[in-house]
From TrEMBL:
Keywords: ATP-binding, Nucleotide-binding, Transport. It comes from the Bacteria. This is Amino acid/amide ABC transporter ATP-binding protein 1 (HAAT family). The keyword Transmembrane does not apply. It holds the Pfam family BCA_ABC_TP_C. InterPro entries: AAA+_ATPase, ABC_AA/LPS_Transport, ABC_transporter-like_ATP-bd, BCA_ABC_TP_C, P-loop_NTPase. GO terms for cellular component: plasma membrane.
Length: 261
């Protein structure tokens, strides 16, 4: 099937997923243009991570479609979606201990899924020819993310903020056209968040299409072209950051947690 127009890279329609009979994601529609940075926000339990998994392929939809670059991908396993050019940075993902920063990033060229990372880790070192081919790309990704000086350090020795940047560099190593980020700023200190905001802004300026799932409204409203707001699994609002901040339904959904001015 080929439904996406030239102005849409990712098109989600009527997407539903329930757990134990309760909807986590309900009739969600979402269309992301090439080069767009789309944020998905919502209070705890709104369905953000579920939607993320339905797009990345870690979860299967009960109903609805996910069309990427004109093709339906909702029945594909995660590693096949990755091969089409969708890269994922998972919530709370950790670097591989016992590997350098460069090696961690090189895994991204092999790895298609979280499970795939482990086979990729064991493959690294066994296929020296592959390594020689991938290393220049990985070094480019390190340069792009400001990590070049850390290339040969043990990844687990880096501060958490830079470990998060390693995850982004690893995702970039697969040369994605769509980058999915699930709460990349969680647990980071203010200066680390600032560095991450700047990095994501640079990737946006380079034209990379991104879907950023985030609990922190202030973080995304500084970055996003458009914001989709979920509450109880449904889209309750979509618009520019300014429109979203002024939306009464959004303010009500976040009642008590304060939508920043
Ligand atoms: N694997 C699962 N099994 C059962 N219920 C689940 C599962 N995953 C999610 N849910 C439920 O689906 C709903 C949406 O959860 P989800 O994690 O997608 O929300 P979220 O917006 O990402 O929340 P948070 O901001 O707290 O991470 C919640 O009610 C959650 O309890």
């Amino acid at each position: 099937m080929s439904t996406a127009s030239g102005s849409t890279l990712l098109e989600v329609a009527g997407l539903c997923r329930s757990f134990d009979g309760v909807f986590a994601v309900r009739e969600v529609d979402l269309a992301v243009a090439p080069g767009e940075l789309r944020a998905v926000i919502g209070p705890n339990g709104a369905g953000k991570s579920t939607l993320f998994g339905l797009i990345g392929g870690q979860l299967r939809a009960d109903a609805g479609t996910v069309v990427y670059d004109g093709d339906r991908i909702d029945r594909l396993p995660a590693h096949r979606r990755a091969r089409t050019g969708i890269a994922v940075v998972f919530q709370g993902a950790r670097v591989f201990a016992g590997m350098t920063v460069l090696e961690n990033v090189m895994v991204g060229a092999h790895a298609d899924t979280r499970a795939g990372f482990f086979s990729a880790v064991t493959r690294l070192g066994r296929h020296r020819a592959d390594e020689r081919a991938i290393a220049p790309t990985a070094r480019e990704c390190l340069a792009r993310t400001g990590l070049s000086d850390w290339a040969d350090r043990p990844a687990e020795a880096l501060p958490l903020g830079q470990q998060r940047v390693v995850q982004v560099a690893r995702a970039l190593c697969g040369n994605p056209r769509l980058l999915l980020l699930d709460e990349p700023a969680s647990g980071l200190r203010a200066a680390e968040r600032e560095a991450l905001v700047n990095l994501i802004a640079e990737l946006r300026a380079e034209g990379l299409t991104m879907l950023l799932v985030e609990h922190d409204v202030a973080f995304v409203t500084r970055l996003a072209d458009r914001v989709t707001v979920l509450d109880l699994g449904r889209v309750i609002a979509e618009g520019t950051p300014a429109e979203i901040r002024a939306d009464e339904k959004v303010v009500a959904a976040y009642l008590g947690t304060e939508v920043p001015a």
